[in-house]
Amino acid sequence: MNNLSLAIAKKLLILENGEMLTGSSFNKIQLAKLEQEGIVAIQRIGRTKTRVRLNSEAGLANYLRNRYQIENLEAYVEMLQQIEISGREAQQMASNTKLRTSRTFKGFLVNVIKPIKAKLHGKEIVIEPRPGTFTFIHDYENFEIDKKVLIIGMENPENFRFIELQDALFPKGEKLFLSRYPQTNDLVNWLSTIPNSYLHFGDFDLAGISIFENEYSKKLGEKASFFIPDDIEKRIAEKGNRDLYNKQYVKYNTLKSSDTRLQALIDLIHANKKGLEQEAFIGNGMDR
Q1: Which part of the chain is the DUF7281 domain (predicted)?
Q2: Are residues 77 and 162 in the same domain?
Q3: Do 150 and 207 belong together in one domain?
Q4: What distance in Å separates the CA atoms of residue 143 and residue 24, rounded to the nearest whole number?
Q5: 2: which DSSP letter?
């Protein structure tokens, strides 16, 4: 039996968690097989670029189970990341859905436009904007920031990278931008322990709203809100993607929200039959 490589497993885990990857992240043969089996959907962007999204959770689960005997993809990835672990032990770990592991790396990425003071283990640190780099908070249980700082979660890595191009979208004042990479619950766990307001900046589509509702709002309550720009109706009408809406419709067509703002956004998406990915907010004509 062949083992699934760590590199491929990590990519599939990202897709399983609702994220998208560029087509170039996979080799052509590998990607073609996944698409042929209905596991992923490929979206073309421009003439040369493509993006890959999970098309069938059940299909992926069956693929992993039947081909690699993997019942728990996240556990499989975590175990392969332990340097001393053997391939056999990793496989045993993956097939046990109830087994829990300790991770070598935990935490999340932070980014700022202007320096922000914080504390780590009670000692003051300064998080500074440094082009080309991000700060990774590993020991997040001992990470503190002023309660007045607005926390903005960026679901897409490119938006997180180019925060300075999107600053005008958000309220003035101190802002700390976060990315939940790797794809774990560490970010939400930390947010649940602090009083700061949390603003979620995700895709303006049914899947993006579902992620916020189920992974953030349920755990954080009223201090969490979904970022909706004033001109969202115009943006969706002019720049929205109908293919994106169609691919998500079967899974999310019954999505409802008790938040009137979010329900209005859901209604708007259905009315236009389009979804809008947050990358549309990263400047105009930018070569990404």
Answers
A1: 183-285
A2: no
A3: yes
A4: 36
A5: P
Predicted model pTM:
0.66
Shared-domain flag, residues 158 and 64: no
Contacts of 83 (CB under 8 A, 6+ apart): none
CA distances to 42, 78, 156, 209, 268 from 201, rounded to whole Å, are 23, 27, 9, 10, 17
SS3 33: helix
Confidence at 288, pLDDT banded by 50, 70, 90: very low
What is the extent of the structural domain holding 81? 6-94
Please give the C-alpha separations between residue 261 and each of 163, 253, 254, 264, in angstroms, as whole numbers: 24, 18, 17, 5
Query: What is the C-alpha to C-alpha distance for residues 175 and 4, in angstroms, rounded to an integer?
Result: 40
Q: CB-based burial of residue 211 (10 Å sphere; 0-12 exposed, 13-18 middle, 19+ buried)?
A: buried
Which tokens sit at 204?
Answer: 């303006």
Torsion on CA atoms 187, 192, 194, 199, rounded to nearest 10: 70
- Residue 53 is part of a domain; what is its CATH number? 1.10.10
Q: Is 88 helix (H, G, I), strand (E, B) or coil?
A: helix
Distance CA 187, CA 66 (A): 33
